[in-house]
C-alpha cells in the first residue's frame, strides 16, 4: 500500500479524493476515498467521477488497462483531476500513453517504501512515477517537487 505521506500530498493537490478505483477496504483506511472499487467491483467496468487516486495493479495486462481507463475517463471529463502512482517503466506503451495525456509527472528521488498489509515496509526493485491529470499543474509542481523531479506540460 502507498505510504500515507504520498496520499496526503495527492489530497492536498486535488482537494479531496472522491474515488480509488483499484483498491481494498484495508488500503482505503489510509486513502480515505469517498468511494472505492475493489477487485470484486471491477473498476475497469465503472465510470470514474471527480478526483481520482490510482495505484493500479502493476502486473500486465492490468496496469495498461487501468492507465487506458484513466485516460478515457479524463477525456470524457468525468474525472476532473487524478494522480496515478506507477513504476517508472518509461519504455512501455502504457507509460507513454499516460505521459502523452497527463499534465505533469514526478519522478521521486529514491524508491517508495510501500507498506504490506502487516505494516512492514517493502523494498521495491524499481523506481516510481506520479502522473497528474488536471488543470492545477502548478500546485502539483509545488508539492511534488519536494520529493523529486517534476516535469510539467505547458
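^ Assign residues to that structure.
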Amino acid at each position: 500500500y502507498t505510504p500515507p505521506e504520498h496520499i496526503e500530498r495527492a489530497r492536498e493537490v486535488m482537494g479531496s479524493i472522491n474515488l480509488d478505483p483499484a483498491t481494498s477496504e484495508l488500503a482505503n483506511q489510509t486513502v480515505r476515498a469517498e468511494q472505492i472499487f475493489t477487485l470484486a467491483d471491477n473498476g475497469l467496468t465503472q465510470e470514474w467521477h471527480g478526483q481520482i487516486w490510482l495505484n493500479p495493479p502493476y502486473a500486465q495486462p492490468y496496469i495498461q488497462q487501468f492507465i487506458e481507463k484513466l485516460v478515457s475517463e479524463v477525456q470524457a471529463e468525468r474525472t476532473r483531476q487524478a494522480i496515478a502512482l506507477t513504476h517508472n517503466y518509461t519504455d512501455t506503451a502504457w507509460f507513454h500513453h499516460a505521459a502523452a495525456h497527463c499534465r505533469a509527472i514526478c519522478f521521486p528521488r529514491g524508491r517508495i517504501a510501500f507498506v504490506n498489509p502487516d505494516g512492514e515496509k517493502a523494498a521495491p526493485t524499481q523506481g516510481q512515477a506520479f502522473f497528474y491529470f488536471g488543470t492545477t499543474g502548478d500546485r502539483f509542481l509545488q508539492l511534488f517537487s519536494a520529493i523529486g523531479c517534476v516535469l510539467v506540460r505547458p
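The two ends are 32 Å apart (CA to CA).
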